[in-house]
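Subject: design request, 169 residues
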């Protein structure tokens, strides 16, 4: 596999029994589907070992707006999105294999932002609560309810018209 940022070969590194692919050129790391969950919390020793290992590489200036291809599914462009509802850390995810590419420093930021799964879950719950109580959400729901009510009235009118047509052809 090749680094999606530099095109250089990725190096397979085994950390705590899990193999990840790192770029020695830019300090990025590729996780196969669901592998990140073994590295993302503060208490996970393998995550600290990997984060420390990645620090030795000098980060290069990269254009994060540049879309990259998955190192595993080379024809698929990865989707860049926020890792969490806090909209602080953006990561790249392959819609094909579910692999994740983290650029230099992003693993450490994830580990700092959400030291535990409970912290991540609380942030998600807080985000959901904020959305549900926002005026934009209430306005949207009222708009949907109004559209549904209008659709129901139109359906009733059509049924009445069909019924009347039977008696007045």
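Subject: RE: design request

Done. Sequence follows.
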């Amino acid at each position: 596999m090749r680094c999606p940022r530099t095109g250089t070969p990725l190096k397979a590194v085994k950390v705590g029994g899990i193999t990840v692919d790192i770029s020695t050129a830019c300090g990025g790391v590729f996780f196969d589907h669901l592998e990140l969950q073994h590295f993302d919390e503060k208490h996970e020793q393998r995550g600290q070992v990997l984060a420390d290992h990645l620090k030795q590489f000098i980060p290069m200036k990269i254009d994060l707006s540049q879309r990259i291809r998955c190192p595993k599914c080379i024809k698929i462009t990865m989707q860049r999105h926020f890792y969490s509802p806090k909209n602080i850390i953006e990561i790249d995810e392959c819609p094909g294999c579910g692999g994740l590419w983290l650029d230099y420093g992003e693993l450490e930021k994830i580990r700092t932002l959400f030291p535990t799964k409970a912290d991540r879950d609380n942030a998600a719950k807080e985000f959901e609560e904020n959305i549900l109580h926002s005026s934009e959400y209430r306005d949207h729901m009222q708009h949907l309810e109004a559209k549904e009510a209008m659709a129901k009235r139109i359906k009733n009118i059509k049924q009445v018209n069909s019924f009347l047509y039977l008696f007045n052809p």
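The chain has a mean pLDDT of 90.
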